[in-house]
Amino acid sequence: MLPFGGGNETSYAKFEPFLDPAIQMINGEAPGKGRRIKEPLLKNLYLIADEYYKQFKPQIKEPYAIFGHSMGAYLAHLITQHIREDKLPLPKHLFLTSKIAPSRNYNKKRSLMTNDEFVAHLKELKGMPEAVLNNEELLQIFLPVIRSDFDAIDTYKYIPQPPYPVDMTVICGTRENVPDDQLTDWKKETSGNFRFERWEGDHFWIFDHIAELCGMINQTLSKY
Questions:
Q1: How is the beta sheet containing 167-173 ordered, strand by strand?
Q2: What is the pTM assigned to this prediction?
């Protein structure tokens, strides 16, 4: 499970009760977050992916899949490339939500936003509680972490590679201002089966549909 910008190893805790008991949910932690809060933050997406890969690599033994929301989708993509390079067993499926295809990424220059502009942007995404966004003390803690991740996303440079033979599901919220073609271009990254869907909601629609989303994951993985 790979987190969204500002997320950590507890981000998907609410998913676990809805996953099939046969599915073990594995989370990692990046520097500067959660239990690693005292370590320097990373602002390069490739380095962040390397950190997660180091944590997951020893566990790549049993059949597995990868889930990534928003920034986590790019991390899933980069880690899958790492796995192929190391000739380890590839994931059975990639579940990628609410992120345009890596080949379509561009610098939104969010690093140039003032804190007020950035907080307004976070409110638009509807991914953080208003109680946090309206609390100056909490913002001083969370804003540097979130801004660091957003900088990493915005400055990520796509490097084309041959598609990997992994089935892929891409889902985006119906109220996200993202054209379908920017999402379906994920097809360029896989030679496996590709599925694209829109589910009702904003950028963090996944937390409004936890039971349905986990049910879809359960059903999909039961076929392998």
A1: 66-69, 93-97, 167-173, 194-199
A2: 0.94
